Amino acid sequence: MVAELSRLRDQIDEVDKQMVELLARRLSLVAEVGEVKSKHGLPIYAPDREAAMLASRREEASSKGIPPDLIEDILRRTMRESYASENDSGFKCLNPELRSIVVVGGNGQLGSLFCKLFKLSGYDVKILGSQDWDRADEILADAGMVVVTVPINRTDSIIRQLSNLPDDCILADLTSIKSEPLQAMLESHAGPVVGLHPMFGPDIASLAKQVIVYCDGRNPEMYQWLLEQFRIWGASLHRISAIEHDQGMTLIQALRHFTSFVYGLHLAEENPNLSQLTALSSPIYRLELAMVGRLFAQDAQLYADIIMSSSQNIDMIKRFHARFGDAIALLDSQDKEGFISTFGQVESWFGEFAPRFLKESQTLLRQANDTAHR
C-alpha cells in the first residue's frame, strides 16, 4: 500500500510541477499583454474578454469530466495575480501635457498607492505632507492637479488652505464622505473640482474590478481624462451625487462598522476562548469573525471619524438600535409566528438578490474553508 501510494504521489508531484511551469509561462505572456495594453492605453481589466474566456474554459472542463467550478476558481485566482503583474508594465499617460500632480497626504497609505499609480502612468508627482506646509506655495505653484487624501477630521481645513491654486488646476479629494469636502472644494477653488471615493483599501495589489465613486463638482469636461485613466488602471467608475453617496455610505460603512465594533465589544466583554471559538466555527462564522477582527486590526481613529462624520450616521444607528429592540421583543414573547412573518417580509424585500447572494456567499465560504488550518 505504501509503495502504491508513493508511486501515485510521485506522479501527482510531477503534474504539480508541470502546473507551476504552465503558470510561469502564463504570467510571462500576461507581462507581454501588459506591455501592449500600456502602449495602446487599454484597460487592464476587460470584463467581456474575461467572461467569454471563463465560459469557454468551463465548457472545456465539463467535456473532460472536470468540475467547471474548479477550473473557474483556478483561473480567477490566476487572473488576480495576472492583473497585479500587469501593473509592472506601467500604464499609458492620457494627459502628458498635465503639469505636476500634488498629492496632499501622499505619505499616507492610500496617498502612496495613488502616487505609485500616477507615477506608473508617467505623471510628475509631488507630495505635500504634514511637514511640508512651510513650502506649500512652492509645491503648489505649478500644479496641474491636487489630490487631497488626509484624515476625515482634517479634510475640510486642509482643503480651505488650497485657495491659491492655478485657475485650471483640478482639485479632487479621496474622502469617504463627499458632501462637505465637495462643498469646501467648490468654495475654495474656482477651477475644476471632482469628489472621489475609492471603495477599497490601500493594500490591494491591483485596481482591476475595484470601484471608484465620483461626484461631479465643476467643469467635468476638464477631468474626463482622469476618469478614463482610472479605467485604464482597471477600475470601475460609479457616478453619483454627493448627497446620494453619503446616504449610501451611512449603510455601507457607518452602520456596518458600528455593528462590527459592538460585536467585537460584546465578545471582549464575554471573554470566550478565541482559539476554541475559531476551532469550533463553521466557515461562515469564521468569516464573520474574521471581518470583525479585521476592524480591530486597523486604525481606531479612522473608524471613529467614519462613524461619527455626520448626524445622519448617528440617526441611522439609533433606528437600527430601535429595530434591534423590536426583534428582541419577538424573542421575549416567544413569538415564533411573528419572527417567521418578519423573516418573510425581509425575504420579499431582498427579492432576487437573496438567491444571488446565497450563491455568491457559497463561493466565499468554499474559499474560506480552503484556507482554514485544522
TrEMBL record:
Start and end residues of each Prephenate/arogenate dehydrogenase domain: 99-361
Any one GO MF annotation of this record: prephenate dehydrogenase (NADP+) activity
SMART domains named in the record: CM_2
Superkingdom, taxonomy of origin: Bacteria
Chorismate mutase domain ranges (all copies): 1-90
UniProt GO cellular component terms: cytoplasm
GO biological process: chorismate metabolic process; tyrosine biosynthetic process
Organism: Enterovibrio norvegicus DSM 15893
UniProt cross-references to InterPro entries, sorted A to Z: 6-PGluconate_DH-like_C_sf, Chor_mut/prephenate_DH_T, Chorismate_II_sf, CM_dom_sf, CM_II_prokaryot, CM_T, NAD(P)-bd_dom_sf, PDH_C
PROSITE patterns documented for this protein: CHORISMATE_MUT_2 (PS51168), PDH_ADH (PS51176)
Compartments (UniProt record): Cytoplasm
Protein name: T-protein
Pfam families: CM_2, PDH_C, PDH_N
Catalytic activity as recorded in UniProt: prephenate + NAD(+) = 3-(4-hydroxyphenyl)pyruvate + CO2 + NADH; chorismate = prephenate
Organism phylogeny: Bacteria, Pseudomonadati, Pseudomonadota, Gammaproteobacteria, Vibrionales
Family the UniProt entry places it in: In the C-terminal section; belongs to the prephenate/arogenate dehydrogenase family.
Pathway: Metabolic intermediate biosynthesis; prephenate biosynthesis; prephenate from chorismate: step 1/1; Amino-acid biosynthesis; L-tyrosine biosynthesis; (4-hydroxyphenyl)pyruvate from prephenate (NAD(+) route): step 1/1
Keywords: Amino-acid biosynthesis, Aromatic amino acid biosynthesis, Cytoplasm, Isomerase, Multifunctional enzyme, NAD, Oxidoreductase, Tyrosine biosynthesis
